[in-house]
Design a protein that fits this description.
Chain lengths: 220, 165
């Protein structure tokens, strides 16, 4: 899944690279940057943040389903990664390590929210069923209205289903289907066996599937 | 093929990772099992939807805010380093080690309880109570039988040196 990736990155110190890179090459570059960070090169960490911030933010956003909180949690992930960088020995990819920190923070946050109870409803905030946080989707008038409705219903079901799923299942389905990690990478990130990753993925998908209405499936 | 076996292969089928023969057997099952066919169709639809979700990006202030909060160097404290090294070595979180340690400590205290230094004092108290009670019995007996041979007072020290029982 994490195969060849097109990347545009600024390596800092005047080195600009736009090329097709394999996952291994990307990991090697990360390791070099981590090494530089450990030798107190502050610019290297900035490059690492640049390389991973959007993917990591997308993961956190899908995990906690709130744009502002997602940014705070992503910041916390990078802060933790920075302070614990000396402990990273390169046993897994740097990105996998970041996902591990992010998952732990998201699970902790879910537990805290569960203990506190549901947040009060605000009239100013967009509704859950309005899609991507602040972005309101405008239907395409040219397509079939029923099909368009079914498509929106599918997206709404997926987002609501993800939001209500247990964080353990959610982490696996987001890492696999949205972030594109392999079973092995997920196993490393979550510190669980590959077999558990597969069973959680099936359970997560089946849970989402149960919530789909028949007309949504029929319309696709 | 049974539904249970199908479910084990469904992830790989949806992700198009199955070899030709297994795929064929699975599709033969779908022809006769509406529930599995429906589940497979829904899972494929979901997978496509999840993969097509738009990717969110951080705001423009993200880096500035992060830079303001980053410490000057990535060094960790001694205790944190020690705890993390221990976790890496054993693969067990510190919380579990703490719980295990607490359990062992309680067990050791319970086992050592009979041998603790204040045990002697407690024994003395018990012996004193026993001897006092015994003396009361003897005195009562002497009163009833008009026994005049009983000494008027018996010191505590004598009691302890030569217990009645």
């Amino acid at each position: 899944m994490a195969g060849a990736t097109v990347s545009t990155m600024d390596m800092g110190a005047g080195v600009g690279v736009t090329t097709l890179r394999s996952a291994t090459e990307m990991e090697d570059i990360d390791l070099i940057l981590v090494g530089r960070c450990k030798r107190n090169d502050s610019g290297a960490f900035e490059i690492l943040v640049h390389r991973h911030k959007n993917r990591l933010y997308n993961f956190v956003y899908r995990m906690i389903n709130n744009a502002e909180d997602a940014e705070d949690v992503t910041q916390e992930v990078f802060l933790r990664a920075f302070t614990r960088l000396q402990l990273f020995r390169g046993e897994c990819a740097f990105q996998t390590w970041l996902y591990r920190i992010a998952t732990n923070l998201c699970v902790d946050r879910s537990r805290k929210i569960k203990r506190q109870g549901p947040p009060p409803l605000s009239l100013d905030e967009p509704r859950d069923d309005e899609g991507e946080g602040n972005v309101r989707e405008i239907p395409d008038e040219r397509s079939d209205p029923f099909q368009e409705f079914a498509r929106q219903e599918l997206r709404r079901s997926v987002q609501q289903g993800l939001a209500r799923m247990s964080p353990k299942l959610r982490a696996v389905v987001v890492l696999y289907d949205i972030q594109g990690l392999s079973y092995e990478e997920i196993a490393q990130a979550l510190r669980i066996p590959v077999g558990t990753v597969k069973s959680r993925l099936f359970n997560a998908r089946a849970e989402l599937a149960r919530k789909l209405k028949p007309y949504v499936v029929a319309a696709q | 093929m049974f539904c249970r076996q199908v479910k084990r292969l469904l992830n790989d089928y949806v992700d198009a990772r199955l070899d030709a023969s297994r795929k064929q057997r699975l599709e033969e099952h779908f022809a006769s099992c509406e529930a599995c066919r429906q589940l497979s169709a829904k899972m494929r639809l979901l997978r496509n939807e999840l993969q097509s979700l738009p990717h969110a990006s951080t705001s423009d202030q993200f880096l500035r805010r992060l830079q303001a909060e980053l410490p000057s160097s990535p060094k960790v404290g001694f205790w944190q380093h020690l705890a993390e090294s221990w976790i890496r070595l054993t693969g067990v979180p510190t919380v579990r080690w703490s719980a295990a340690g607490l359990g062992i400590a309680v067990l050791v205290i319970l086992m050592a309880l009979p041998h603790l230094p204040w045990k002697g004092e407690r024994e003395q108290e018990v012996r004193l109570a026993q001897s006092s009670f015994a003396m009361e019995c003897v005195e009562q007996h002497a009163t009833y039988t008009n026994d005049q041979t009983m000494p008027d007072t018996i010191t505590l020290a004598q009691d302890l040196k030569e217990p009645v029982f």
